[in-house]
């Protein structure tokens, strides 16, 4: 099993094999995540090369590691991911049952793909921002449906669980690279500042983990025109960009302004140089 591109870490959990009675046998469970916190659960089921409607897959997740929260009768499970009748859904424990209610995570990231088993992908943010989920999974097969009502009948169904019933949970650590500030653009205006005029430097940046633009934080600039130090008249965010404005000394014609612009956001910094010749 190859971890998804960009996966920060991948762990393979071995399940027992050779289950009797025509069970769709889970051989291994591979869990991985990328640097955006997208978790992939891959249940390898070689005896099920493609999905069939008689199969129900459930992944039970204790997101906080506390057996006394969530469904305490099954080890504190907080969420269940269910693939049934070709649809995949996320359910949250409401104190009585696993349901979907107003205000629950939207599960917009939840998708699946079937090839010799199922790959289920979901954001850790939609699993309570879990950092160390504990989980077990089950594949039930042989489900039939009432021809009149459409109700499922589990009478003759069989199931395999990973790990085996009575052996607790698998534990997985979500590991992501620390977020960085990513440089996007730097512009100066005018390109050739005029002595006695103003000179503006603009820089845009984004977060490495989400790609979201940096819209606030601290802005600092340094600059010199020849040997003379320039102080920024303003250094702040304007319309989603870090902006510094300088007054250009009248006696600086022919000199080159050189400096740096720096963004500091949530303890992380990004600095870029700039230069422009005064006319």
Question: Secondary structure elements and their pairing?
Answer:
Elements: E1 7-14, E2 28-34, E3 38-44, E4 56-62, E5 79-84, E6 87-93, E7 98-99, E8 111-114, E9 117-123, E10 134-141, E11 144-145, E12 152-153, E13 158-162, E14 170-171, E15 181-189, E16 198-207, E17 218-225, E18 228-230, E19 232-238, E20 241-247, E21 256-265, E22 268-277
Antiparallel strand pairs: 1-2, 2-3, 3-9, 4-5, 4-10, 5-6, 6-7, 8-9, 10-13, 10-14, 11-12, 15-16, 16-20, 17-18, 17-21, 19-20, 21-22
Q: How would you sum up this structure, described in words?
A:
The protein is mostly beta strands and 279 residues long. It folds into two domains: 7-171; 181-277, Sandwich (Immunoglobulin-like). It is built from no helices and 22 strands. It has strands at residues 7-14, 28-34, 38-44, 56-62, 79-84, 87-93, 98-99, 111-114, 117-123, 134-141, 144-145, 152-153, 158-162, 170-171, 181-189, 198-207, 218-225, 228-230, 232-238, 241-247, 256-265, 268-277. The strands form five sheets. Strands 4, 5, 6, 7, 10, 13 and 14 form a seven-stranded antiparallel β-sheet that branches. A five-stranded antiparallel β-sheet has the order 1-2-3-9-8, with no helix packed on it. A hairpin with a 4-residue loop joins strand 6 and strand 7 (98-99). The termini are far apart. Residues 1-7 have low confidence and may be disordered.
């Amino acid at each position: 099993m190859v971890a998804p591109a960009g996966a920060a870490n991948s762990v393979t959990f071995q399940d027992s094999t050779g289950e009797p009675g025509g069970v769709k046998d889970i051989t291994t469970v591979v869990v991985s995540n990328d640097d955006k916190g997208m978790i992939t659960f891959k249940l390898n089921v070689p005896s099920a090369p493609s999905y069939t409607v008689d199969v129900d897959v459930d992944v039970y997740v204790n997101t906080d590691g506390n057996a006394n929260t969530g469904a305490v009768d099954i080890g504190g499970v907080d969420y269940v991911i269910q693939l049934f009748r070709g649809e995949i859904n996320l359910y949250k424990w409401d104190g009585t049952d696993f349901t979907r209610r107003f205000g629950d995570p939207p599960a917009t990231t939840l998708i699946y793909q079937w090839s010799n088993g199922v790959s289920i992908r979901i954001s850790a943010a939609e699993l309570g921002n879990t950092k160390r989920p504990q989980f077990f999974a089950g594949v039930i097969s042989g489900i039939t449906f009432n021809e009149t009502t459409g109700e499922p009948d589990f009478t003759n169904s069989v199931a395999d669980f990973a790990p085996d019933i009575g052996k607790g949970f698998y534990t997985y650590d979500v590991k992501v690279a620390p977020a960085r500030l990513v440089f996007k653009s730097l512009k100066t205006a005018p390109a050739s500042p005029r002595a006695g005029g103003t000179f503006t430097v603009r820089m845009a940046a984004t977060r490495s983990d989400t790609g979201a633009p940096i819209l606030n934080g601290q802005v600092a600039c340094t600059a010199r025109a020849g040997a003379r130090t320039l102080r920024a008249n303003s250094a702040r965010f304007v319309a989603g960009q870090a902006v510094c404005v300088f007054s250009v000394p009248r006696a600086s014609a022919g000199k080159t302004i050189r400096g740096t612009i720096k963004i500091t956001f949530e303890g992380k910094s990004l600095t870029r140089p700039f230069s422009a010749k005064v006319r």
